[in-house]
Amino acid sequence: MAFNTGNTGDDGEVVSAINTTPLVDVMLVLLIIFLITIPVATHTVKVKLPVDRNQPTQTKPGNIVLAVTADGQTYWNTLPVSDHKDLVNRLMEAARQQPQPQIQIRGDGSAQYMPIGKIVAACQEAGIQHVDFITEQPHD
């Protein structure tokens, strides 16, 4: 920053005012840079997001309910599933049925994602067309 040290008159006082012109120049340059870069930083791909219908799903007798407990144990309706291969075999049998049954996954709220993710992968591997996740309405 520069200081003006010139005399102001006959009394011999020194004027020590700060020259703010360089400060204003720097601030204007920064303002222009921010105005140019903000639209680029906030640019996203425009997509139309799906709307949640949140309609209650009714469990029909032909539907298969896969439940995952908090400790990660998987159940086929009410029977425990021994391993991933057993689950895939059962799902392949269900996928051959016409019409194909609906798979409903009921995961405990405190369950890890890994067992539920394995069920989804098994459904995909078996060729299941329709998989639902069962949730509860929030209590007000």
TrEMBL record:
<dbReference type="GO" id="GO:0015031">
    <property type="term" value="P:protein transport"/>
</dbReference>
<keyword id="KW-0997">Cell inner membrane</keyword>
<dbReference type="GO" id="GO:0005886">
    <property type="term" value="C:plasma membrane"/>
</dbReference>
<keyword id="KW-0812">Transmembrane</keyword>
<keyword id="KW-0472">Membrane</keyword>
<protein>
    <submittedName>
        <fullName>Biopolymer transporter ExbD</fullName>
    </submittedName>
</protein>
<keyword id="KW-1133">Transmembrane helix</keyword>
<comment type="similarity">
    <text>Belongs to the ExbD/TolR family.</text>
</comment>
<keyword id="KW-1003">Cell membrane</keyword>
<comment type="function">
    <text>Involved in the TonB-dependent energy-dependent transport of various receptor-bound substrates.</text>
</comment>
<dbReference type="Pfam" id="PF02472">
    <property type="entry name" value="ExbD"/>
</dbReference>
<keyword id="KW-0653">Protein transport</keyword>
<dbReference type="InterPro" id="IPR003400">
    <property type="entry name" value="ExbD"/>
</dbReference>
<comment type="subunit">
    <text>The accessory proteins ExbB and ExbD seem to form a complex with TonB.</text>
</comment>
<keyword id="KW-0813">Transport</keyword>
<dbReference type="GO" id="GO:0022857">
    <property type="term" value="F:transmembrane transporter activity"/>
</dbReference>
<feature type="transmembrane region" description="Helical">
    <location>
        <begin position="26"/>
        <end position="45"/>
    </location>
</feature>
